[in-house]
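Dear support,

I submitted the protein below through the web form. The confirmation email said the job was done, but the results page showed an empty box. After a refresh the structure appeared. I'm attaching both so you can tell me whether what I see now is the final result or a partial one.
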Amino acid sequence: MNKKIKIGIIGLGQRGYNLLSNFFVRSSRVEVTALSDIYADRTQDAYQKVLETAGNKPVTSTNYLDILDPKLVDAVIIATSWDTHIEVAIEAMKRGIITGLEVGGAYSIEECWDLVKTFESTQTPFMFLENCCYNKDELLATALVRHGILGEIVHASGSYTHDIRDEVAYGIEKRHYRLLNYINRNGDNYPTHELGPIAKILGVNRGNRMVSLVSMASKAKGMEQYIHNNLDTINPKLHDQRFNQGDVVYTLIKCANGETITLKLDTTLPSYPGRNFTIKGTKGMYQQPGNIVVVDGVDNKEEIWGEMVNLRRLLDNADRYKNDYLPDYWKNITPEQISAGHGGMDVYMLDSFLDAIEQKDEMPIDVYDAAAWMAITILSEESINLGSQPVAIPDFTKGKWIKRPLKDVVKL
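What the results page shows now:
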């Protein structure tokens, strides 16, 4: 039997605790040996979970530096508050510990450059843990692009549409960092779920790059109304609170190869959850929600226009391609993998991380991806503050994008 990978988890809020559970699905490959969170009760809860489920006793600390020990852990998963993500990742890489960084937006361009420079100087393996890059729909669309079925890609769009008003409004009780972000900042604060799969499809940082963006935010009224409607349960400190974060934020990105990308943040108004992932090419398109594919020569335009009266006939028509193009993981997914997190994509993502560690291979979502995708947050804020003027997006590869070969997160 191969030696198990020793994993430490830093940040044990909702996301960190969920990732901990995902590792239990892969217990034959990993052992959770260390846990850290600034709140002792979270660390203790996670400790008990490991003890009861896996049978070992991980080292715990409220100071993450205490567990950044190569003798204790081979790799760490960082799921702390957004403002500390990059700081912790840099410390881990400096100590030669393989680093998996959870998603979130950056707070400065300087910290994005610091992340890149630390990786380049230490060469410590680093992966950005964007789980949506491993989702079934996004991978099917990517495979259709790679096999030329959609033609040359011209435009892509996506959104983070997720009603999180309760998470923000009860942020004091939940000890959630989103509250202060929504009070003080205004931009696309969570861009990578929709951007990550699109950037991979378009070869961003590998033969292509994002060059500029424009962002615009609506007024901020959703949180104030939600608090007004729930005064009896919401902390009095927030009863008269004004929020800076616009309810809906649109960001339009231009790529070096001519493609455009539209991102939408929509988190403080009543809505149903969705990423609205759409890829438009010269021969066809893929659309989520609906799991719909329209291809020239296969789908008749007149029939499609007629079907729009009864859209249900088009729903899930992309399934006709899944036998030929969907990765085997999704064809053979188990109930355990589905229930472990986000319908199965969390396990797939962590498998990819573990595979790269065991095979000493290049990480499928690297530090240049992390820097470019996270930078969208601070750049969108800048554009909004300038009256929605265009803002340049740095080239974190320093020109290497021109020659870097295309690399998908999994074999397609």
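Response: this is the final, complete result; the empty box was a page-load delay. The CA atoms of residues 171 and 259 lie 38 Å apart.
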